[in-house]
Specification:
132 residues; four-stranded mixed beta sheet; 2 helices; 2,3-Dihydroxybiphenyl 1,2-Dioxygenase, domain 1
Length: 132
């Protein structure tokens, strides 16, 4: 299990710092630092660094295997983020859906796509023991 004295770090490419900044701010991520070639965010308690690297942008992204995101333990937080994404008119790659219906690992999920075609998944498991 994760200890609270550790922060996960993820670095991804972006094609434009300004549009990246606007997307993640609308998602509720606090900008921490901005440099000429990158911007760093508090991404739901972890560190996300978007490096300016337009030639690394995936022109045809697929949900699997490359995406990242957050698994919520509180359904209300999951639903609140979904509502925020809809109200902010953030681009969905995959609308809200239920995966593995009727099975123990059933969960609700949706995917957003950022301006550099990075895919973000947000999900909530009905059975908390299925988080890992």
């Amino acid at each position: 299990m994760r200890e609270t004295n550790k922060v996960f770090h993820l670095a991804i490419p972006c094609k434009d710092l300004d549009e990246t900044l606007q997307f993640y701010k609308k998602l509720g991520c606090r900008p921490a630092r901005r440099y000429e070639d990158r911007v760093t965010f508090d991404f739901f308690g972890d560190q996300l660094v978007c490096h300016l690297n337009p030639e690394e942008v995936d022109e045809k992204p697929k949900m699997y295997p490359r995406h990242f995101g957050v698994t919520f333990v509180q359904r209300e937080e999951f639903e609140s983020l979904l509502k925020k994404a809809e109200q902010s008119e953030l681009p969905f790659f995959q609308e809200l859906m239920v995966r593995f219906p009727g099975k123990r690992e059933e969960h609700m999920t949706f995917f957003l796509i950022d301006p550099a075609n990075n895919l973000l998944e947000f999900k909530f498991y009905h059975d908390r023991s299925m988080l890992y």
